[in-house]
Design a protein that fits this description.
By secondary structure, this protein is mostly beta strands. The protein contains 2 helices and 30 strands. It starts with a helix and ends with a helix.
Length: 222
């Protein structure tokens, strides 16, 4: 994009009620639309057919490509979002990656170092830390614990994970797709879930802990 075209686009947006903190470091394609009262911080790239609603806040270092954001969406620092949809009131980031086909529901939260690929995260659900969610359909009010992985690829094919409403996924759970977690179910932290978990059940797959008394003393280096 030429400097003159870039400057004209930014001036048009600012005249329509968009706040752009640092026009010199902000890049917005002419094909992008941004709603009124939205704030765009320095170093943001908005590209392609991206549409951003009213009263959003896009923090520094964010790149959004061919995506749709509803109203009152907050995207925190250094996120990459492409070919995805984020519903009103959702929060993404910092350092999150939304790959093509991802859909984040109203009031949902995608936290730091979380990656979504072809995944729907339902209304009010949250994945706050360090997780990979690929080829998954996740219902409403679901808690995804830190370190959760959907193991969606078997080396030849991709498989889907379905997590129904009001599920609690414990930290460091591995969901070996194809698998379904029923409504209101729990998974224990550190579990590898290979079979469906019925509604309201606890899915737990964990080796028994063994403590070797005196081991440290016997093996202490001199």
């Amino acid at each position: 994009m030429g400097d003159i075209v870039k400057q004209k686009k930014i001036e048009e947006l600012m005249a329509s009620g968009v706040t752009i903190d640092d026009p010199a470091t902000t890049y917005i394609d002419v094909t992008v639309s941004v709603g009124k009262n939205t704030v765009i911080h320095p170093g943001v790239h908005l590209q392609g057919t991206t549409q951003i609603g009213d009263t959003c806040e896009i923090h520094p270092g964010v790149r959004i490509v061919n995506s749709v954001l509803g109203n009152n969406v907050v995207v925190l620092d250094y996120c990459l979002i492409s070919d995805s949809t984020i519903a009103s009131g959702a929060t993404v980031g910092p350092f999150a990656h939304l790959r093509p086909g991802s859909r984040v529901g109203e009031q949902a939260k995608v936290g730091n170092f979380v990656e979504l690929k072809k995944t729907t995260l339902g209304k009010g659900s949250k994945a706050n830390h360090l997780s990979y969610l690929g080829d998954a359909t996740i219902g409403k009010n679901v808690n995804i614990g830190a370190g959760t992985i959907t193991c969606n690829y078997d080396g030849q094919q991709k498989h889907t994970t379905v997590i129904e409403d009001d599920v609690f996924i414990g930290s460091s759970t591995q969901l070996i797709a194809p698998v379904r977690i029923g409504e209101g179910a729990f998974t224990g932290a550190g579990s590898s879930i290979t079979d469906d978990v019925p509604a309201e059940a606890l899915g737990l797959s964990r080796a028994k802990q063994v403590n070797k008394k005196g081991w440290a003393k016997r093996n202490k280096r001199s």
